[in-house]
Amino acid sequence: MAETLGFIGLGNMGEPIALNLLAAGYGLRVYNRTPSKVAPLVARGGLAAKTVAEVASAGGIVLTMVADDRALEDLCLAPGSFVEKLGAGGVHISLSTIAPATARRLSAHHAKHKVDYLASPVFGRPDAAAERKLWVCTSGPGGARRRAEPIFEAIGQGVLHFGDEPGAANVVKLCGNFLIASTIEALAELMVFAEKNGVSKSAVADMIGKFSPLHRGYAKLIAEQKFEPAGFRLALGFKDINLVLQTAAESVTPLPMASLLYDRWLSAVAKGRGDLDWSAVALGAAEDAGLKPSLRSEVVE
Amino acid sequence: MAETLGFIGLGNMGEPIALNLLAAGYGLRVYNRTPSKVAPLVARGGLAAKTVAEVASAGGIVLTMVADDRALEDLCLAPGSFVEKLGAGGVHISLSTIAPATARRLSAHHAKHKVDYLASPVFGRPDAAAERKLWVCTSGPGGARRRAEPIFEAIGQGVLHFGDEPGAANVVKLCGNFLIASTIEALAELMVFAEKNGVSKSAVADMIGKFSPLHRGYAKLIAEQKFEPAGFRLALGFKDINLVLQTAAESVTPLPMASLLYDRWLSAVAKGRGDLDWSAVALGAAEDAGLKPSLRSEVVE
Amino acid sequence: MAETLGFIGLGNMGEPIALNLLAAGYGLRVYNRTPSKVAPLVARGGLAAKTVAEVASAGGIVLTMVADDRALEDLCLAPGSFVEKLGAGGVHISLSTIAPATARRLSAHHAKHKVDYLASPVFGRPDAAAERKLWVCTSGPGGARRRAEPIFEAIGQGVLHFGDEPGAANVVKLCGNFLIASTIEALAELMVFAEKNGVSKSAVADMIGKFSPLHRGYAKLIAEQKFEPAGFRLALGFKDINLVLQTAAESVTPLPMASLLYDRWLSAVAKGRGDLDWSAVALGAAEDAGLKPSLRSEVVE
Amino acid sequence: MAETLGFIGLGNMGEPIALNLLAAGYGLRVYNRTPSKVAPLVARGGLAAKTVAEVASAGGIVLTMVADDRALEDLCLAPGSFVEKLGAGGVHISLSTIAPATARRLSAHHAKHKVDYLASPVFGRPDAAAERKLWVCTSGPGGARRRAEPIFEAIGQGVLHFGDEPGAANVVKLCGNFLIASTIEALAELMVFAEKNGVSKSAVADMIGKFSPLHRGYAKLIAEQKFEPAGFRLALGFKDINLVLQTAAESVTPLPMASLLYDRWLSAVAKGRGDLDWSAVALGAAEDAGLKPSLRSEVVE
Fold it and tell me: What pLDDT digit, counting tens, does each position of A74-133 carry?
């Protein structure tokens, strides 16, 4: 049997990933802020850790999938953290989408405890996680990356390596989310354009889906205005666009398209749509054009 | 042997399309404003028409692939035009990317001469045209569309039908070009973002290409800054973004992302880049970030 | 008594201007598409012309204040137009805000009839027109400008000369309207910003009004959301922003701020606000921020 | 003789303000990070403080004019700070442009030491400061504001009160800087527009200056491309636009015009223009239009 890993964070991405690790034969000590979410893992053979630090064993591996930079830093920097417990030879595989600067800061912090920090953000929505179809982007110490390979294989369809620099994988992940967000806005605008010019949105969605698998899903969601349940919460998407702009500011890089996306997303949050799927940002383009999209959940207002 | 068609416009898209029609066994009467471009077609069995109207025969089919709305209207509306010569039962297959409003205007004009106008813009760059990998979007009278099917098969990999409304196929084509243009700008910005944050552009291009065939080509062009020879001239791309905004204005549809693209493209034209590939618009994001991209052809200046 | 002038166009700007000309002692032959609007002028001594051409006398002066480029070209280019009747030594003072290109085209046309075209757009809203507080921007032949001086004095507080080039005064007028439109959007955004951060809009409006007379009026309108009656119709403002962008395109000049204004204005038109004052564009920024501004006239919907 | 005040921060705004306080008869204990800048103040009767805390006396008044939020927090929150030394009955008049959130945080901190925090940012460039033509915006405890009145009179031409909420004056100050920044970008674009359409930039600047005193100075700077010496450093302006966007994000307020300004300013910083006057951002619009503005200091590169 494979070794026992630590796993922290059982949200709608973390849970299916942890289940796949169990399915692949790994032992798992799991922790979640809301304890009730641990039960399904325990049912499949996972061990419930009572404290965060308990998930770690000396020289072992801990994976984390938490909401944002703040949550991750709180976990790692607290005295007596799981990082300290990992100690020499330990590896922290951080699956969250966070700022490259945070990854670099944590990497330096971990080094003091002789722990390797592996930035390992993933591409894919919860259904892809469940089907082991994630793509893992990873960067950090080469030895740790090699050690993590079988773990990555257990949770995804492929691994992309971006060298030793701890922030690199996060830069790449932000590139990817920026690209998807821009795709959503472009699709939103062109669907309104089609509709206002007498062409059905679903005809356009079909065509685009024919050309590009990457666009297919979002084109369909936007054409059908089906924004619930959220595959990826709009508020989390806003967090990522924010990370893009913050990181861009630190590197003195103006990104006008990212700014446009920022304003669209912030407006959607202001309109109370933070819990819808992030493709719900498409409502903005429709409203600007004087359409009154009838979103089921908002009709009640 | 299949019937003899008329063909007008032997630019870098028209020529390979015409060659494929010849290869498929069609007879072809060809016309081009610059007569020298007719020679390669004649070498493969085409007939050189001395005047535009000469390409048409009563009740036959004429295909056109010309640069813009103006050129097409000049061809069609002149007294004694090929449309008049086609007359009752004739079909005009218009392959150009033009405004939906122009398509509607021409359709009405053609109807007076009992000619069916088929809006049939195509997706694909010159290499795709040569390899019969175009996608044809078509709208117009159903009978004419059925009659045109084998022709479309001879030049592309698939046909998408958008009903009887003559402008519909052009609306859809503009949607497609808008989407591609937005992809170019997004790729441009994220490559600068990656570069400024220490990640190589080609690593990002590889990752994106892995996820999405649609993005692969442009990601590579932009990462390598290889903007010559032009697969699709930047100035022509600007024309299309213009058509999107014009058509959007007529339908009272604000498209902020299209406006952003418009400004980028117009700036690239102002900087003398109209003859480069339209992905050269990516230089704008780099320059805004204080980079001085060394474009081979511009270094000489 | 001063000479008798022709005057075409009695809208909410044209009427007070014409009244001031009568008040200054000029004779006036007036024409308006909707004849009923002529009565108030006749009541003050004006002469009602039955046809457009009738306003002109050989070698005389005609002023026009019509809605847009199209209306002006229709007036001028028709056979037997007032321009032909003016003939040698005649002067056409065109007060409308139109494209510089249109001004150049008309100037060339007028020259064929030996008529001087004076581009003479004005700054100021209807109340300023009534109080003779307009500013006139003028360009065209020097002799005609000198001849027009006393007329300009009768209708405004000052004249600004921009040389002989017929389009120049229109370029300048578009600059001015662009500046005002950008001011409206900036005020709109900062008022929402203030409101969302607990500072009253009227306090901000007062402060801004203290610093800048130019901003005072719009700051107050936006703070109070008093968009009716329209001093300057939003739809006309959109026309002007369009002229800016069109003229900018012809001169290959990207103007991202003008593009932003364009989208805001177009959205306001899409939302049915074309007949409100153009400061009503401010509702867009408020709605984007999740506010539901209670516009009196729209509540009824 | 008036009481003795503490004064921290002798930059190009702080110095003339401090000199005016001396001129008005106040005693002054001054501190500056770079000690050499204290000499001119001592020459006019000021007392050089050896440490920051030394500028304060129990129950007295200290004014600060430092570069940014960070610098101000460092000054105030350090143990043994001047705030602690002020103690009960003390007043801290903070002249810097900072985030409203910082002002609120400091206000709460000061309250623990029974010190009143007065947010008192000022409008005006260094020459206005020297001529006592600043406008002071102030908010905070009413008693402290009344006590500060004669001080404000000694340094400016007027005081605007925005109530007790400590952040309010900073909100208003950010509104003002946002408005000025938008004016700069609008002027920049319209000057390029004029130039490309054959109208001289100085003619446009003259016209605008005639209408609006607020615009006169910037219109002239941009027309003449005279960006040195900096009245207000571009990098500091970028800081303020950042504060606007940060504060807007906290209050969930999308500001697309502020985003556009952000990208322009960030690009100017990326191009190495952070030390020029902030109107130098105008070079961006010119470069986008394919012009190569010959900035004296950059030609040398």
Answer: 999 999 999 999 999 999 999 999 999 999 999 999 999 999 999 999 999 999 999 999
What percent of chain A stands above pLDDT 90? 93
Q: What ipTM did this prediction achieve?
A: 0.94
Asked if D260's CB is within 8 angstroms of A266's CB, the reply is: no
Q: What angle do CA B131, B137, B140 make, to 5 degrees?
A: 135
Q: What is the mean pLDDT of chain A?
A: 95
Pairing verdict, β B122-123 and B134-138: antiparallel
Query: Residue C3 gets which letter from DSSP?
Result: P
Angle at D84 between CA D83 and CA D90, to 5 degrees: 60
**Residue C212: which of D190, D194, D214 has the nearest Cβ?**
D214
State how far residue C275 is from chain B, nearest Cα, in angstroms.
15
- Residue B232 is predicted with a pLDDT of 92
Catalytic residue among B37, B112, B114, B173: B173
Is C173 annotated in the active site? Answer: yes
Mean pLDDT of the B254-278 span: 98
Chain C contact partners (≥3 CB pairs within 8 A): A, B, D
Query: The tokens of C206 are what?
Result: 């007062």
pLDDT tens digits, A161-191: 999 999 999 999 999 999 999 999 999 999 9
Angle at C63 between CA D203 and CA D191, to 5 degrees: 20
List the single best residue of B157, B164, B253, B266 to mutate versus A (max A Cβ within 10 A): B253
Residues of chain A in contact with residue D262, where contact means CB-CB under 8 angstroms, are 254, 259
Q: Is D24 left (phi over 0), alpha (psi -120 to 50) or beta?
A: alpha
Q: What is the pTM of this model?
A: 0.95
| Secondary structure letter of residue C233 according to DSSP | B
Q: How far is D140 from chain A (nearest CA, A)?
A: 29
Closest CA to C110 of C96, C127, C94: C94
Nearest Cα of chain B lies from the Cα of D287 at a distance, in angstroms, of 8
Task: Name residue, tokens 């002006």.
Answer: C72
Question: Over the stretch D10-30, which tens digit does the pLDDT of each residue have?
Answer: 999 999 999 999 999 999 999
Q: Which of D85, D173, D201, D220 is catalytic?
A: D173
- Report helix angle C168-196 to C100-112, nearest 10: 160
The residues on C that touch A, with CB distances below 8 Å, are 256, 263, 267, 270-272, 284, 287-290
Instruction: Give chain D's domains with CATH numbers.
Output: 4-164 (3.40.50.720), 171-290 (1.10.1040.10)
* Chain segment C217-268, per-residue pLDDT in tens: 999 999 999 999 998 999 999 999 999 999 999 999 999 999 999 999 999 9
Q: pLDDT-based confidence at A301, cuts 50/70/90?
A: very low
Q: What is the 3-state secondary structure (H, E, C) of chain A?
A: CCCEEEEECCCCCHHHHHHHHHHCCCEEEEECCCHHHHHHHHHCCCEECCCCHHHCCCCCEEEECCCCHHHHHHHHHCCCCHHHHHCCCCEEEECCCCCHHHHHHHHHHHHHCCCEEEECCEECCHHHHHCCCEEEEEECCHHHHHHHHHHHHHHEEEEEECCCCCCHHHHHHHHHHHHHHHHHHHHHHHHHHHHHCCCCHHHHHHHHHHHCHHHHHHHHHHHHCCCCCCCCEHHHHHHHHHHHHHHHHHCCCCCHHHHHHHHHHHHHHHCCCCCCEHHHHHHHHHHHCCCCCCCHHHHCC
Q: From residue B202, how far is each of A136, A265, B198 by CA, in Å?
A: 18, 29, 12
Mean pLDDT for the stretch of residues A32-40: 94
Handedness of CA A234, A236, A239, A241 (dihedral sign): negative
Contacts of D258 in chain C (CB under 8 A): 189
**Cα(A210)–Cα(A212) distance, rounded to whole angstroms?**
6
- Any chains having at least 3 CB pairs less than 8 A from chain B are A, C, D
